[in-house]
Amino acid sequence: MDYFVSPIPPDGSCPKTASRSKSSGLSPFAVFAQNLRGLNTTVVLKSPHVPPLPELRKPQPVTPTGQPVQPVPEKTFIQKYWMYIAVAFVALLLTGGEEEGPRRQARA
């Protein structure tokens, strides 16, 4: 969007002045009225753009007494996976070890 004061050009340079003999006797209003024909009077209307609404966090739940609800504490590793550990331990016990052969007596 280009904003500028009407008698001043958009590039900011000094406006061209008319010679005194040409505009002598004319009031400033009459000079402005003569220059008004050359002004751009285009108006563009645009509807406002609504930005997206912010994502708000949910409020913390409250008990009937007004105290905040305490979250359930997270279980430890053993509490979560004890059954899998027990199955692995039983499988190790059932497979047994390698059969032992006759042992050699150490010579003294």
Structure in words:
The structure is a single chain. The protein has 108 residues and is mostly helical. It has a domain at 1-9 and 23-44. Helices cover 30% and strands 0% of the residues. The protein is built from three helices and no strands. It has helices spanning 20-23, 28-36, 77-95. The longest helix is centred in the C-terminal third of the chain and has 19 residues, at 77-95. The protein is elongated. It comes from Leucocoprinus birnbaumii. Residues 1-23, 50-70 are annotated as: Disordered. Residues 59-70 have a biased composition (Low complexity). This is ER membrane protein complex subunit 10.
Give a brief description.
The chain is built from three helices and no strands.
Q: Could you give the topology of this structure?
A:
Blueprint: H1 20-23, H2 28-36, H3 77-95
What distinguishing features does this structure have?
108 residues; mainly alpha; 3 helices; 0% strand; elongated
Whole-number radius of gyration? 46 Å
Beta-strand residue fraction: under 5%
Q: What's the helix-strand series? A: HHH
Individual helix count: 3
Largest sheet: none
Annotation, overall tally of beta strands? 0
Helix share bin: 25-40%
Structural class: mainly alpha
Oligomer: single chain
Unreliable segments of 5+ consecutive residues: none
Molecular shape? elongated
How widely separated are the two ends? Answer: 106 Å
Mean pLDDT: 81
